[in-house]
Design a protein that fits this description.
This protein is α/β, with parallel strands linked by helices.
Length: about 240
């Protein structure tokens, strides 16, 4: 979850995290028990950037650590009433609760590494809500490795965010019709795309400086694909942003 205009990524560290998570997912274990206990099998890490210059809700990571001990895991005590319907449960799990201070009370960039089906999508939704709560008029870009994953998030978030909260969604994939696409993207606030299509769309970034300059939140799903054959495209997109 990237909330700055530029960022440095420690690729070796991400590769190491990917191998660790793959090994973890290959093992059979009780996810419910895993999420209920204070487990070290997942990590939430802030990414330090020399270019970040935001006014934080709380001054620094020390305040985030203070909030970590005080925050409730109950949704109704964290999320304002108008956004509670987004979450069909009453309590955040351990992963989400640990990520709350950085996602909700700090504007740092974050890497969340944990097994499949452990609740990482909710972390993205918390970052989305934080942006809406801050009344930012900027755009959000969600990047996933394939169209199927983009379509799944598009269908879900269109229902959760577009109709009740006015966050207009638009898909940008290889199947997108070119006619009027630039105008559709300009009119949308939540853009769901693949690395290849976003790379193509932003390659001549000088022609789209106004659009790119509006992006305030970049959500990257399955970032471990940096270590795969297509990883170079994703790395180029992140570097360009």
């Amino acid at each position: 979850i990237i909330r700055a205009s530029s960022i440095s990524i420690n690729k070796k560290k991400i590769m190491s995290e990917e191998r660790r998570v793959v090994e973890l997912v290959d093992e059979e274990f009780d996810f419910t028990r895993f999420l209920e206990q204070d487990s070290n099998d997942f990590s939430i890490s802030p990414i330090q950037s020399n270019h970040t210059n935001y006014s934080n809700k709380h001054s620094n990571n020390q305040s985030s650590r203070r909030h970590e001990t005080k925050l409730s895991s109950r949704v109704d005590r964290i999320v304002s009433p108008k956004f509670r319907s987004i979450f069909p449960f009453s309590n955040f799990n351990m992963l989400q609760h640990k990520a709350l201070p950085m996602l909700f009370y700090n504007r740092c960039n974050v890497v969340v590494a944990s097994p499949t089906a452990s609740g990482k999508t909710v972390c993205m939704e918390l970052a989305l809500i934080e942006m809406l709560e801050s009344r930012s008029e900027g755009k959000v870009v969600y990047v996933a490795p394939n169209k199927a994953l983009c379509q799944e998030r598009f269908d879900d978030w269109k229902q959760k965010f577009e109709r009740p909260h006015g966050l207009v969604c638009e898909m940008l994939t290889g199947d997108s019709e070119r006619k009027g696409l630039d105008q559709k993207i300009a009119n949308s606030r939540l853009i769901l795309t693949t690395p290849e299509k976003f790379d193509s769309f932003t390659r001549r970034w000088n022609d789209k400086q106004a659009l790119i300059g509006q992006i305030r939140l970049l959500l990257i799903d399955e970032i471990h694909t940096l270590n795969e054959k297509r990883g170079g495209t994703l790395e180029a997109v992140v570097t360009r942003m």
